[in-house]
Amino acid sequence: MVRKTKEEAEQTRKEIIESARAVFHQCGVSRSTLEKIAKEAGVTRGAIYWHFKDKAELFFAMREDVFAPMVERTDSLLLSDDFANPLDAIEASLKEFFRVLDDCPVVREVFEIMISRCEYVDEFSAVQEEAGRPAYEFLEKMERIYRKAADKGMLRQGLDPTAIARDTWAFTSGLLHLMLGCQKGSDLDKQIPAMISTHMALRRRA
Amino acid sequence: MVRKTKEEAEQTRKEIIESARAVFHQCGVSRSTLEKIAKEAGVTRGAIYWHFKDKAELFFAMREDVFAPMVERTDSLLLSDDFANPLDAIEASLKEFFRVLDDCPVVREVFEIMISRCEYVDEFSAVQEEAGRPAYEFLEKMERIYRKAADKGMLRQGLDPTAIARDTWAFTSGLLHLMLGCQKGSDLDKQIPAMISTHMALRRRA
DNA sequence: CTATTTACATACATTCATGAATGTTTATAA
DNA sequence: TTATAAACATTCATGAATGTATGTAAATAG
Questions:
Q1: B30 pLDDT above the threshold of 80
Q2: Residue ranges, chain A, pLDDT below 50
């Protein structure tokens, strides 16, 4: 039985991506053979080669599925007008980001793959650059919002918006890596909201 | 010409490690074949198998060569008695860490390999755990020193040593990852000392 | 209704990469 | 001085993994 309908084909495409995520997460990207992924998805390598040019393209597709919604989600909080204090927008956005990471296994797995189960060389160095752009955009957003907070007088005296934006930038990156890196026996997950609160409290007006 | 003297053998061992670092950095660990590494070192795979059980063991050796001196170096500053203010010890230690990373290519390459050119699965998941321990020890040290600073009255009012230790922990991890990840065209390197100063200034008594 | 694609499965050729086995000198210990 | 073992080089067998080429049945366009 071959030649499925268009919707069925789209479904197998999704199943291949799901399987790729599972196998990537378990074996690491380089040790994940297309045969394993195909078997996990209940298809043959032929199906994968039909939908994707090679493993790299499959990897990109898997990543994009998760990244875009994530950025949109956090940005909507970051740029929301519902917060009188811009610092509250930052705090809410950061907490939302890590909350999703904490209780959405799909998202978490993709981030774990990207952080500790992929080697960024050759075809994959492009991924690293693409992941670097959102990071820099995050920095710019932080700077803008901290400046707005300063204008509104919500920032603690003597703080430079650019400088503390960089501090928040590094803090967020580090939190992400620590959460996904040293997960095992640690109860870090539960302390993250408090850590974010502490971080923001450092820059609130007394 | 075979059967070198003991010192010569030790020398080729070191050359193998050097070559492994170069090849790991260029190709990523999984795509680094022992043949490539051997050729780079001017030996054959036989030599590598003589000195190391397999690629993983070679990887561990390469890592250990760089890590231990690094921890010792930063710890000596961190636990030094030369600083009247414990916060100065932290600041000096962090700056020293990133200074070495910045102008010692060997150290930088090893960290880059560990962060973005290695997949932490199977044999290598042990590496991640070993790298996680120093991270937790760093957290504990931070906590102790911040507490000491609090006792001496050098800490800004209302700050909890444990909480800001975690903040510094995440900050440092993030700085490391940002520095090694998004290196390319950014001038991040030059801003790192200022970022550390800013970070510490946030917790100094006004 | 049939011609053409689509959406795969199957088969094949080729290319590494590994680990072990074995060979070969030569330092070194006795 | 010689036996032993160190420090490699060479060779071999084997097992993936990849990409491509080809087969094929069913959906769909006309």
A1: yes
A2: none
Over residues A12-39, the pLDDT tens digits come to 999 999 999 999 999 999 999 999 999 9
* Average pLDDT over chain A, rounded to an integer: 94
Domain CATH code at residue A128: 1.10.357.10
Distance from CA of A79 to the nearest CA of B (A): 24
- Chain A window 5-64: residues with CB closer than 7 Å to nucleic chain C are 6, 8-9, 12-13, 38, 43-47, 50-51
Contact between chains at B30 and A27 (C-beta distance less than 8 A): no
- Say if residue A71 is in the same domain as residue A44: no
CA distance A11 to chain B (A): 29
Residue B58 lies in a domain: no
Shared domain for A94 and A182, answered yes or no, is yes
d(CA A108, CA B160): 30
* DSSP letter, residue B124: G
A42 lies in the same domain as A61: no
Tell me what pLDDT residue B131 has. 82
> Residue B172 domain-assigned?
yes
